[in-house]
Amino acid sequence: MYKEQQEKLLEGLRTQNILQKGVHLSGDGRNDSPGFSAKYCTYSIMDGSTNQVVHYELVQVTEAASSVGMEPIGFKRGLNSLLEMGIDIDVMTTDRSPSIRKIMRVDYPQIHHEFDIWHVVKGFFKKLLSVSKKKENVDLQPWIKSICNHLWYACASCNGDPEVLTEKWKSLLHHICGEHRWEENGRQQTCAHDDLTHDQQRRKRWLRKESTAFRTLSTLVLHPNLLKDMRQMALFKHTGSLEVYHSVLLKYCRKNLHFHYSSMTARSQLAVMDHNENVNRQQATTSSGVPRYNIVFPKQNKDWLARKIYEPTTQNFRDELLQRVQERRSDPTVLFKDPSSQVSLPDIPCNIATKPKPDKEAAIAKHVSRFSK
User: Fold this and answer.
1) Less CB within 10 Å around the terminal CB: N or C of the chain?
2) How far, in Å, are 1, 168, 173 from residue 324 at the CA level?
3) Do 64 and 212 fall into the same domain?
4) Which helix (H) or strand (E) segment is 242 a member of?
5) Is residue 343 assigned to a domain?
6) Are residues 44 and 78 located together in one domain of the fold?
7) Bridge partners of 41?
8) What is the pLDDT of residues 199-256, one digit of tens each?
């Protein structure tokens, strides 16, 4: 069932190639452990136009030098698989991982590499939160959320132009000081928002340009690496839907339980089919047609937020799957443990041990010995 569904999705991507609509994909990895001791990494690739997962790769840690090295392997293997299947990829969106950036720059120069705005904003938020805890930068705290929202706005409204994106991002340093009209490069610039009233202007806690908080913010906003990366953020791509899929994957592959490779493969395929069936759910409404929301208090935000309530998920793929199981079980031509019907697994070690298993008696003797090494 998974392969049939995947082939339909790939056929849709091939049609996009024929119609020259451009194939935009996004990818992200998910480890099976909350720490740095992961055994498996599941790298998933999603179609940006439908938010459906079109391919995934499962990597075991024995294939890499460490847990950190699994994600680049899964990324490159997944991208190669799609290219071999005849998919011409125009844009690939990932996080700003140095290893993946190098892979894209060296091995796939024909594919435009975009950075995920969600990860960029998340990282910038952590930096702002960290520096604002210092006494001299405490004036930044009321502005943290607005600064992150401005980064989203700049990427969403630049119409794919990196120069416009950079200009809008830098305008933050004027607005945050209460300066809404200024001259730059011989041109008159203005903020994009409506004119503030006298009362609004008076109530805002503007920063002073000579303050330490403003100088700290300027260093972060005008950091050369961030301004350089903005040239790969102008298309406003983000992997928020992949994070939603990872929540579905967590239902099938919990991080506090160990699964063998064959089980991880089957559970990942179930998660893909579950996500793809429910990816286009609409917001739930009341009997009178009013959209439904839930009021929550996230610990990180420390403020009450309204979140959409979506329609319940459906599990129709499970009914079809059970029907196929029954039909296969009733087929007298299918033999139990028939070699031709077994799932082929990659040639990987059965465990993550780097040494052969020792004799049990020798291991016990070493354990109880006082001078064992």
Assistant:
1) C
2) 9, 55, 61
3) no
4) helix 240-252
5) no
6) yes
7) 31, 59
8) 888 888 899 999 999 999 999 999 999 999 999 999 999 888 899 999 999 999 999 8
